[in-house]
Structure formats: C-alpha cells, structure tokens
Amino acid sequence: MINIVICDDEIAFHEIISYKIESCMKQVFKMDFKITCFNDLDKLKKHIEGERVDIVFLDIMVNDQNAMDWTIKNIDDSYVQFIFMTAYPQCAYNISETNCCYFMVKSRMNDETLERAIRRAIKHISNKSDAPYFLSIGSKRRKVNVQDIMYIESLDNNVIFHIWDNEQIRAYSSLKRYEKLLPPNFLRVHKSFMVNLNYIVSYEPYKFVLDDGFVVPVPAKKYTEAVNKYNRYKLSL
Asked: Which of 107, 110, 140, 149 has the most neighbouring CB atoms within 10 Å?
C-alpha cells in the first residue's frame, strides 16, 4: 500500500487534489493506496513520525510558513518523497536544499503532470536502499534496510525476514501488520508469504521465482491478480 499525505492550508483544495490523486492511482497505477489530509505542519510532522509515509503533496506556503524551510529544519527522513505544490513559484527559492521529488505549479497541474510526479516518487521509494526499519525482537529492536528484505514468511505466529545475504530474522508478529507498514514494492501473495517485488526474476503458474532461486508459491485464485500487480509495479518504475 502507498501511503499518501496532502498538506495544504486551503481545505477546499484537499478535495480537488484528493480526487485527482485517487483517479490517477486507480486508472494509471492500479495500486492500493491511502490518502490522509492535513492543513497544519505540526500535525504533518507528528503523522510522519508515527506512521510510514511514502509521498507528501505539500503546499509551499502553509499558514504563512514556508514549508520548504520547514522540511529542511524538521524532517530527517529521506525516505519520504515530497512533491511540492504552489501558486507562487517565487517562494521556491530554496528548493535545491530540500528533499524535493517533484515540483508543481498549481495552475499548470494536469493529469500528465500528476502522473509523472507520482511515478517518480514510486521509483524513488522502490530504489531507496538506505530506508531503515526497526524490527521488534523480544525486548530488543533490530535495524534493517527495507530493500534488503527479499521476502517475509509467516510460520507459527512468527514472521521470518529473509535478507538478501542469506540472513534470517525472526520476530513474533503477523504478516498483516507488515502489509500496512512496508513500502509498495512489498506484495502479499500468499497467506504465508509477502515478497519484495524488486527481487522477482520470473513467474509461472503458480509461483514467483526470486533472484536467489527461491520459489514463492501463489494460490491459483490469487495468481492473476498478483501477476497483474507485479507487472503494473514494474511499469510504474
């Protein structure tokens, strides 16, 4: 699932941009997504700190505060992809210092521009090799790079993270939890398996083959949907 946030102090604009994003995600990318809206930078910061956020559509001026300056001072998470929007391009004087994925002038925003912005954001998310994640293992927390996880297996009320260097990390949890937490290149293809789409090298009925040779089973009733999601993901890059 792709978690998208809109932050703009014009409440009426939330409905407009939400509709455009929803249409683009459904018609072009056909990926699972969630949209959350804010009109306050402090609420946005709290949300980013509390949940995984993939893409933020952020107005450059929010309640008379320059949001570009604000991100430089307040947002350390390089994983989040910021798509800046404005009606006043002159306010983007410091864009080179920000974690800017895409820049859009509101009056020139159309379906093609929005698609390019989202496509670039998804590509950046999927290629982030330094995206950290903390796993809770008993009373300890273990830091791993999300993109090093090849697939996740559920076994006896535990999940096993299979890392690209043949390491395995076991944690007491469920796959359902990680469906919401992990970035869009992770797909639940089986009741017991979630796979990182970046590691798939081929597929055939009814399985995905990873680049280390491991075969992830896919139930017949889910196979077509899983393959379609994989192909749409690859096309989005």
From this structure: 149
22-35 pLDDT, tens digit per residue, is 999 998 888 889 99
User: Could you tell me the residue range of the domain that residue 145 belongs to?
Assistant: 132-236
Q: Domain containing 194 — which CATH number?
A: 2.40.50.1020
CB 112 within 8 A of CB 83: no
CA 121 to chain centre: 8
